[in-house]
């Protein structure tokens, strides 16, 4: 019986991280590094991007809402 292909745990983690960053962008909670003052809704800043797409973010603060 053939073994079902299962996603690798590293692939799952990469997908979860990508989705998290995508959701931050959709909600407008991420800004480019060095943005001062931080806009009211922003919680994270881009640390690394490729092709204009954020790949790594850093938390600057928790939501004030």
Task: Give an account of the 3D structure.
It is a single chain. The chain contains 1 helix and 3 strands, in the order αβββ. With 65 residues, the chain is α+β, with helices and mostly antiparallel strands. The protein has one domain (9-59). The protein has a 3-stranded mixed sheet. The longest helix has 19 residues, at 9-27. The protein is elongated. The relative contact order is 0.16. The mean pLDDT is 86.
Structural features:
3 strands; alpha+beta; 29% helix; 65 residues; three-stranded mixed β-sheet; single chain
Task: Report the major sheet.
Answer: 3 strands, mixed
Number of domains: 1
Distance between the termini: 53 Å
Average of pLDDT:
86
**Percentage of residues in strands:** 25-35%
- C-alpha Rg (nearest Å): 16 Å
* Global outline: elongated
Order of helices and strands: HEEE
Helical region count?
1
- What is the helix content? 25-40%
Spatial arrangement of strands, main beta sheet? 1-2-3
Number of E-type strands: 3
Which structural class fits the helix and strand makeup? Answer: alpha+beta
Low-pLDDT segments, ≥5 res: none
